[in-house]
Amino acid sequence: MPAWNVNVTFGGEKRRRYLKVAVLGLGACIIWPSWPYFVNSATSAPRGEIHSRASDLRVTLPAAAVLDVGSAPAEPSAVQILVPLLCAIIPVAYWWYVLVPFKRRELAASKRKGDMKEYLQDLAIAPAQERKPERWLFDKYLREAKLIEAGEASGLPKAVQTVEAGLQEQLPGGNAQFGVRVSPPADPSMEKAPLLPLPAGESSIAPSWPVVQPPEPAYSTLNDCQTCLRCPSAYGCGCCSTLCYATLGLVVFALFLVLYPFVAALALVLLLLFGWLAGSVMVYLACLRPPPALVWKGAKLLQLTRLTFYQLPKAAEWRVTDLKPKAKLTTGLLQYAIAVRVPFLSEDELYAGGLFESLVRLAPSAEFMTSSMFFSAPPAISSLSSFREGENPVEYGMEVCRDIYPKVVQEWKDKTSDRALAHFCLHGLGAHRLEKADPSLHTGCAYVVRTNQLAALPVRDGFEHYGNDVYFDKDFKVVKIVREEQVEPWEMPRSTTFLPDGSRTWEYAKFCFRSSLFSFVTLVDHLYGCHLQLANVVVQAMREQLSSDHPIRRFLLPFSYGTININDLARQTLVTRDSFVPQLLPLDNEGLQLAWASAYKLLPPEYVLDTASGSEGPMELMETLFDREKVIKRKQEQGLDTSYYQQALRYWRILRKFVADYLDHYYGTGSRGEMALAADEELKLFLLQTVTQLQAFSDPFSTGQVHELWPSVPNSRKKLIFINFLTRFCELVTVGHEQVGQVQAYAQDASFCAFSWSKSLRQEGPLVGPKEVALGGALLMALTSTPMPRLLAQSPTDDWSHVFPAMSEGDRAKIFGDFQSELRKFSTECDEYNATAAERPFPNDFGLWVFNPKFLETSVSI
Ligand SMILES: [Fe+2]
User: Fold this and answer.
1) Residue 583 Cα, ligand 1 centroid: separation in angstroms?
2) Would you tell me which of 7, 87, 303, 348 could form a disulfide with 564, CB atoms 3.0–4.6 Å apart?
3) Tell me, what's the pLDDT at 168?
4) Has residue 385 got a pLDDT over 90?
5) Tally of structural domains, the chain
6) How many angstroms does the Cα of residue 733 sit away from the middle of ligand 1?
7) pLDDT tens-digit series, residues 430-459
């Protein structure tokens, strides 16, 4: 087993590199403010006068002047020494850090596709007796491009190549310069071997890179500090909290008084040193289009700062008196999508967030963040840098995201084999998109996961389009992958079928499928379906129709926590043209418009109601929309009785019982309870506003038929609809969101899943997304993983039951306690399911994490 190292080295080279940059930066800082002094002192009048008189032979110089010039010791100032020194250092630094790496990248690109490639090809086909010196000189490049296959020469040529290879590593742009240690395999025959051992009988030419578990994120440290300073509980002086806070405040005030002169002096020095630079950067960001790499670095810095000052939500501290009254919310229109409006984040309630959120709320307008005054959209990623053969993409992404990357819950020991593909579709990201295949059209196929719906979306030049449907037999062995090719509108549809023959082409087809599904689920199921449709519409209707003391508004408080804030941030930074997600996708502007406009039709099959048959009326359609148990049972009857749906049904029943118990307690049981529920006017308007605003289902409901039919619906049926409606919302923002948003393991590894990749990857290169996309994908994952309140209370601060109106404390504790007890039992079952995974036969020999309550949060997060 080769000694691959998954940890990035932060010592040695990297420290020296930082030191060099610091010295150069310091030099620049010194010369900048002192330049005028240097110029003035070098051209001052007295010196010029002496020089002038000394050079004029007709003038008789006074003895003092001659003595002054001739015998005075050389006293160059520090500035005079520093300037020529920096004049030498800065060009060298420019050559070392900018010019050479740029030229190396240019050469690498040319070797892949350009003049150098053509030159090497000419050289390779030249007769053996000709162009020998050139062959010797470019021997390494010819071998790397696989243009010659003869054995390597031994002796001096080999020694020269070894020295040259070492130089390449050490020179600017080489790996040694960036502190990334990619240990080469000891044995050349292991070059393409998978990093993780594959199960017996499996083979794959694509390596599976191990998951890297990041350390605790930045916010944990600060929150420990906050807990420590929590007054008065931390000190046990609960008798007088005011005095405790006042004492601490006095200490802070005293410190401020003592430190003020130093802080003010330091601020002034920093302003003098860096003010010009900071001003230039602001002008640059506001007026020009900074390169994507710079934008991503800025995003990382922003998230690091945000997490450092982020306040972990503590449900026990919520106060119902802080809830905002029922009112029409001010909203912003979602770009691209049809008629989707998102409330401004200033409308949110209770959401604490942190320093970042506080500053954003101070902004002069809701659109300030994305206005040109503050943010200039960067150009989309266009230059693509390939990973080298054997270079670890997980390590590459985690080098940048280590401090802000969320915890990775899923365990993937094998990512690229055919077995892993089955696990990906049955237990992973494809589990909710698994469908029965039609065996009359696809012989020997029983199941399918589709992404060819995206195949026709136009992409930018040089990028590969999305697509690929993967078919499995009844035992979940992969049968084939069908790729729909992009054709002109007037051409016949054309598809390519790939068979599991272990070839590179087959591996490419699998990579395309995984990446397409990853992008599909992120864009459609997560961002659109979960955030901007159901969560957005329900929370908006809740705030506009339910009073702050309404029992359902109180019940939904944990499940709607932070939703407005998060969705508005998503609207402004993830959906808007040229923002983070569009930058990473291969789609051009037309492709993005098409994707968003048709997003509701691209949702998973059970979301899209079958209105064409006309067999079900509007009320039945609405019941089917919310009754998850009915949908799951229908799937099981069709033959989709997978572990995913078994756990989904178990969780649904726990959640539904919690909702039903709560409604029974507040409205009463039996016909009296049904009547009270049906008579609740606010609740009725809440439901009707939701169903008419859901874009995906607006067709059957927009005519107002539900409104007309609602009065004639029996009370018992209304109660069932209310129970399923509330349960469906709570289910979707918890496990539904977890299924589509728990993508840490996928986003961490661009060879597992990538948002976009080059078209040329079909023919050549390691099967991994470009470095820019790898970095962007990992950063996007980190940016969109803000912690939310926990569903399963794991500490007293997680208890939100106090927000429920209840007849007595005992009733409240019982409803919440029963729910928590059921969740805890289910969590143990999920743990056991994962612990015994290896004992089960294929394809169920894999874990399921998305339903385990101990990992779930109460509301959506980005
Ligand atoms: Fe999310």
Assistant:
1) 18
2) 348
3) 55
4) no
5) 2
6) 9
7) 999 999 999 999 999 999 999 999 999 999
- What is the pLDDT, as a whole number, of residue 505? 94
Q: Do 624 and 609 form a contact (C-beta atoms < 8 A)?
A: yes
Distance (Å) from CA 802 to ligand 1 centroid: 26
Mean pLDDT of the chain: 78
CA of 740 to the centre of ligand 1 (A): 8
Confidence band (pLDDT; 50, 70, 90) for 248? confident
By residue range, what is the domain housing residue 541?
295-373+404-408+515-609+618-855
Torsion region of 444: left, alpha or beta (phi above 0 gives left; psi -120 to 50 gives alpha): left
Domain assignment present for residue 135? The answer is no
Q: Which domain CATH number covers 819?
A: 1.20.245.10
Report the share of the chain in percent with pLDDT over 90. Answer: 38
Q: Tell me the three state secondary structure of residue 29.
A: helix
The CA 741 to ligand 1 mean position distance, Å, reads 5
Ligand 1 centroid from CA 374, angstroms? 25
For the ranges 58-72, 408-422, 698-712, which has the lowest average pLDDT?
Answer: 58-72
State yes or no: pLDDT of 848 exceeds 70. yes
How far, in Å, is the centroid of ligand 1 from the Cα of 784? 7
**Rounded to the nearest whole angstrom, what is the distance from the C-alpha of residue 455 to the centroid of ligand 1?**
25
Measured in angstroms, how far is the CA atom of residue 405 from the centroid of ligand 1? 15
Local structure of 800: helix, strand or coil: coil
User: In angstroms, rounded to a whole number, what is the distance separating the alpha carbons of residues 732 and 734?
Assistant: 5
pLDDT at 12: 45
Query: How far, in Å, from the CA of 517 to the mean position of ligand 1?
Result: 17
Strand partners, 758: 463
* pLDDT value of residue 550: 95
**Residue 786 C-alpha to ligand 1 middle, in angstroms?**
9
| CA 736–ligand 1 middle distance (angstroms) | 10
Q: What beta strand segments (E) does 402-521 contain? A: 434-436, 447-449, 469-472, 478-484, 495-498
Please indicate, yes or no, whether residues 173 and 312 belong to a single structural domain of this protein.
Answer: no
* Residue tagged 């036969």 (tokens): 841
Last residue of a domain, one of 129, 157, 178: 178
d(CA 265, CA 177): 37
Collapse the DSSP code of 664 into the 3-class scheme (helix H, G, I; strand E, B; otherwise coil) and give the result. Answer: helix
